[in-house]
Amino acid sequence: MAAVVKIGTRGSPLALAQAHETRDRLAAAHDHLTADGAIEIVVMRTTGDRIQSGPLSEAGGKGLFTKEIEDALLDGSIDIAVHSMKDVPTELPDGLIIECILPREDPRDALLTTGAASLAELPTGAVVGTASLRRKAIILNRRPDLKIITFRGNVDTRIRKLADGKADATLLGYAGLRRLGRAEQATAILAPEEMLPAVCQGAIGIECRVDDDNARAMLAAIHHAPSGLRANAERALLSGLDGSCRTPIAALAEIEGDTLSLRALIARTDGSEMLETARSGPVADGIALGMDAADELKGRGGSDFFDATE
User: Fold this and answer.
1) Cα–Cα distance measured from residue 39 to residue 110, given in angstroms and rounded to the nearest whole number
2) How far is CA 188 from CA 31, 184, 202, 267, in A?
3) Among all residues, which ones are annotated catalytic?
4) At what angle do helices 13-29 and 155-163 cross, to 10 degrees?
5) Please, are residues 58 and 25 in contact by the beta-carbon 8 Å criterion?
6) Contacts of 11 (CB under 8 A, 6+ apart)
7) What is the C-alpha to C-alpha distance for residues 54 and 66, in angstroms, rounded to an integer?
8) Which residues of 244-265 are buried (b: 16+ CB within 10 A; e: fewer)?
9) How far apart are the first and last CA of the chain?
10) Cα 244 from chain centroid?
């Protein structure tokens, strides 16, 4: 049978796991999508996948993992696109919308080491591999004695590089390890107080065309409202800071009852300065809280805060 829904995704093991979760949730919510072949997963290679060395921040930052997939959405080659929300720019192409956020996984960072049990226990001069400016800046702020090197590749690649002795430690999103059944690889799970996560880390977003009423109706059935509210607050902060992969920004929104709490920080790329703030208020005010936190951090940091310091 011809596919009723075509899902666009990157081809990494983690991206495929997220696409399969989306497929399974759609099939569980809609009887007409349970037949074999009703949902097709279309794998695409993005610009970010083609860059295998050097920091992504030097190649254009956010959008590197979404552009080709969004182009396919716009030309009708696919019906929906599944993204890690931390890779999605705050401004979407005209005609596209993030219609659905799946239940968010654990947003914390996982530390993987070859011996030490924590960041604090890494010996002086230990080598930490990461491609994240956020992780680099926070680590150097807390441990300026450590050496940071660029670690690129998917989860398996980075775990293999660590095992091969190319670094003494690395950090990965705990959500990704859990989705891949690799949670046991983590040496420690870092509390947000020690390593505040990336904006929307652990959240899966599903994008479609604004004028595709069928896709939007199907996605509405699997949207997880609390995760969406948390994502909206964090992305409002990011938008207010004009954030991209070129700027070390971290945030985490959490909901308890009718209250949304937001923690946020910005850091200089060399870790020499880090500014933090927090907001709390009604869940419905999440976007306003994010924007207000961004205004405060911009005011405290000044116009040159994100200028290169290395």
Assistant:
1) 33
2) 41, 10, 17, 23
3) 87
4) 140
5) no
6) 43, 44, 45, 49
7) 19
8) bbbbbbbbbbebeeeebbbbbb
9) 56
10) 12
